[in-house]
Amino acid sequence: MTHTREQINQLKQWNVELTFFNRGCMVKVGCKSFAFESVEQAMAEIAAYTKDPIGVGKKYAPEEFVEPQEACVPESAPTPPRWPMEPPIAVHR
To answer: What CA–CA distance (Å, rounded) separates 47 from 54?
Structure first.
């Protein structure tokens, strides 16, 4: 499968970590973790995520997903954050 430049850029934004257990596994994307009852189920979702990061993001974290609104954003504006958003870094003084 050939990925578009946009898909590749979205996939590069967040690390994906896998933690395997006796039964199932946990998939962490950015700061969000998701538990799966089987490794096969997790692998199917990871494959779906690589094909459609935005669609899978909406499926698992719709309240935190920010979809770009190209018609309303000037070309010079920075790209809005995408799912999953990293938590802000606290600065202590």
So the answer is: 13
92: Cα within 13 Å, side-chain hemisphere = 0
Residue of 19, 13, 20, 22 whose CA lies nearest to 49: 13
Tens digit of pLDDT per residue, the chain (93 long)? 677 888 888 888 888 999 999 999 999 988 889 999 999 999 999 999 999 888 888 888 887 666 554 444 455 556 655 555 555 555 555
Does residue 84 have a cis bond before it (omega within 30 degrees)? Answer: yes
Please say whether the beta carbons of 59 and 27 come within 8 A.
Answer: no
Torsion of CA 72, 75, 80, 83, to 10 degrees: 100
